Amino acid sequence: MNNQDKGFIQLAHKPLFEHVLERLSPQCDSIIISSNKESQQLSSYDLPIIKDSLEGFLGPLAGLLACMQWVRKHQPGVQWIASVPVDTPFIPQNLVSTLYQSMLENTADIACATSNGRTHPVIALWPIRLLDDLEAALSKENIRKIDLWTSRYKVSLPDFSDSLLDPFYNINCHEDLVHAEALLRKPNENTA
């Protein structure tokens, strides 16, 4: 995307970040942002912006760890954290509740979204109680891949498949953005 900040690429005259925020906000008691970039645009949303606590830009698990650490310190009563990437503007409006229900029904440790035969490891519900395990995996075992770390736990995989639109359609290039614009113009094809 020509080194642009993906979160502020416009989709239907609105930044991708706002599409995700609008869908996620009603599902969560609070929202925090995982970002290592200094951004006045992100700061304007008046939400906590959490930088990785480990050096070296170690990927999504490092961002998850930093967010878990922030939650443990600032919201000690919170037991779960949901994660979604900024480039998925069609996330389901029942994402968090479905992940949570699936985790309960399957007595799982983690719930990770699936759709149309694909697992989406970054779109998940994580228990804060795994914070110390995650920190050890990153700092002592050098684990970077989400799937490698989650393979140690029972993971529930609720299916969000939709024949009209993959609810986890992500925007990685200009063609994806054009396709997302077309999807937004078609009535009744957005996930609920």
UniProtKB/TrEMBL annotation:
Residues 4-146 form the MobA-like NTP transferase domain. Mg(2+) binds at residue 87. GO terms for molecular function: GTP binding; metal ion binding; molybdenum cofactor guanylyltransferase activity. The keyword Metal-binding applies. Its cofactor is Mg(2+). GTP binds at residues 6, 52, 87. Keywords: Cytoplasm, GTP-binding, Magnesium, Metal-binding, Molybdenum cofactor biosynthesis, Nucleotide-binding, Transferase. Its EC number is 2.7.7.77. It catalyses: Mo-molybdopterin + GTP + H(+) = Mo-molybdopterin guanine dinucleotide + diphosphate. The N-terminal domain determines nucleotide recognition and specific binding, while the C-terminal domain determines the specific binding to the target protein. NCBIfam families: molyb_mobA (TIGR02665). Monomer. Belongs to the MobA family. This is Molybdenum cofactor guanylyltransferase.
